[in-house]
């Protein structure tokens, strides 16, 4: 509009009608050319100063079937199976209940109730359960929960004895294995699991807020931002746990001896391949990238220096010795909060035997990749749901289940139909 007003004044004062038309064309063309050159220069400068987002790969899509197998739960955080509990499934609720679902009578039984003892703000709650390797004999199990003590939110790793003749309460715990201060109510992680080596692995987030303000991810003197590995002590008169002799930092100054791996942001679920023993971990991203890590002894997975394969802090030239990249990443166009799953070892989906199957909590997509390939894996979308998939479970036959945080329903993954 300013250009039109200026031209009219120019015409009135100086030129005849014919000259006015000629000069208007010249002036219009000159201004257009000038704007074009400025725009091109701006684009060139932007290209030089802004890191371009990698070109998206074509992600194949399929549709997995799923069947609802259980209902009536509230805010599911974990699903576990054990061979000594045939035809049953253990379900954890964020607010503090442990329930046992029976597939035959399709009813749930309350096993434990920690309501009132568990903090439930944001990502806090009753977050994980693991059965002792000798659970069939000793009935011991362990939970990961956030509770408040002395005015502080803390992660508690507690040992209990299974007793289905009563409802287990917080005060029934046999011992506290570990407790860790949580500075914020998010990035508390929550998974714990016994590996094929009989050791207990526990995942901790970086402690929360955003961007890791306390730099916990690269601080090896804190549990936050790490995966630890311990051996629970069954002798009630001994310390609650031992440090395994082969832990990578048992005798390293500046490192907690429990640390197995570090540089994690918020490992929301990890699992061991029941055939090969490999450890897969899903780490929730910050601004752009979700990732899956193949966890190896003593490795640093980069947070908060890197997010996925990319620089986070600093934004450029972040490569340094000792950082381990993920085996897979996806950006926030596909999903915004990864939920870790399992390597599939069942029979219902024979084509996907050996695939790591997981999901995104926000987008509801079921995702997967073959674990038989080396290096960076190729991602496949296995299904698109409207669920908030908060956790997976794997039964003794290797079949997979997932929980919908919103509805409280649990589904078993079934056959797929290829759509493209």
TrEMBL record:
Q: Name one Pfam family in it.
A: GSDH
Q: Which residues form the Glucose/Sorbosone dehydrogenase domain?
A: 85-401
> Any idea what this protein is called?
Glucose dehydrogenase
């Amino acid at each position: 509009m300013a250009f039109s007003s200026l031209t009219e004044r120019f015409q009135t004062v100086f030129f005849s009608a014919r000259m006015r038309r000629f000069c208007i064309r010249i002036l219009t063309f000159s201004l257009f050319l000038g704007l074009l050159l400025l725009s091109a220069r701006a684009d060139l400068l932007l290209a030089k100063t802004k890191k371009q987002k990698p070109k998206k790969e074509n992600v194949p899509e399929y549709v997995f079937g799923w069947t609802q197998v259980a209902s009536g739960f509230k805010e599911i955080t974990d699903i576990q199976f054990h061979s000594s509990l045939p035809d049953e499934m253990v379900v954890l609720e964020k607010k503090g209940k442990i329930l046992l679902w029976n597939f035959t009578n399709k009813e749930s039984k309350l096993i434990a109730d920690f309501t009132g003892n568990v903090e439930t703000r944001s990502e806090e709650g009753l977050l994980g359960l693991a059965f002792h390797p000798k659970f069939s004999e000793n009935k011991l199990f362990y939970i990961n929960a956030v509770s408040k003590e002395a005015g502080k939110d803390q992660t508690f790793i507690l040992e209990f004895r299974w007793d289905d003749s009563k409802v287990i309460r917080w005060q029934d715990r046999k011992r506290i294995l570990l407790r860790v201060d949580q500075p914020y109510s998010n990035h508390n992680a929550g998974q714990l699991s016994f590996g094929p080596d009989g050791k207990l692995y526990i995942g901790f987030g970086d402690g929360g807020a955003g961007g890791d303000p306390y730099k916990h991810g690269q601080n090896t003197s804190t549990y936050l931002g790490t995966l630890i590995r311990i051996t629970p002590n069954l002798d009630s008169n001994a310390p609650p746990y031992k440090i395994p002799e082969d832990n990578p930092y048992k005798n390293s100054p500046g490192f907690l001896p429990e640390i197995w791996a570090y540089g994690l942001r918020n490992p929301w679920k990890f699992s061991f391949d029941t055939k090969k023993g490999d450890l897969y971990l899903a780490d929730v991203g910050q601004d752009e990238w979700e990732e899956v890590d193949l966890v190896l002894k003593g490795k640093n997975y980069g947070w908060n220096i890197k997010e996925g394969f990319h620089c986070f802090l600093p934004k450029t030239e972040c490569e340094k010795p000792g950082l381990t990249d993920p085996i897979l990443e996806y950006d926030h166009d596909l999903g915004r909060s990864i939920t870790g799953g399992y390597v599939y070892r069942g029979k219902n989906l024979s084509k996907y035997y050996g695939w790591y199957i997981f999901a995104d909590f926000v987008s509801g997509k079921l995702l997967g990749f073959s674990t038989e390939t080396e290096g960076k894996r190729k991602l496949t979308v296995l299904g698109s749901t409207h669920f908030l998939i908060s956790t997976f479970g794997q039964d003794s036959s290797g079949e997979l289940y997932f929980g919908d945080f919103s509805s409280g329903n649990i589904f078993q993954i079934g056959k797929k139909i290829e759509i493209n």
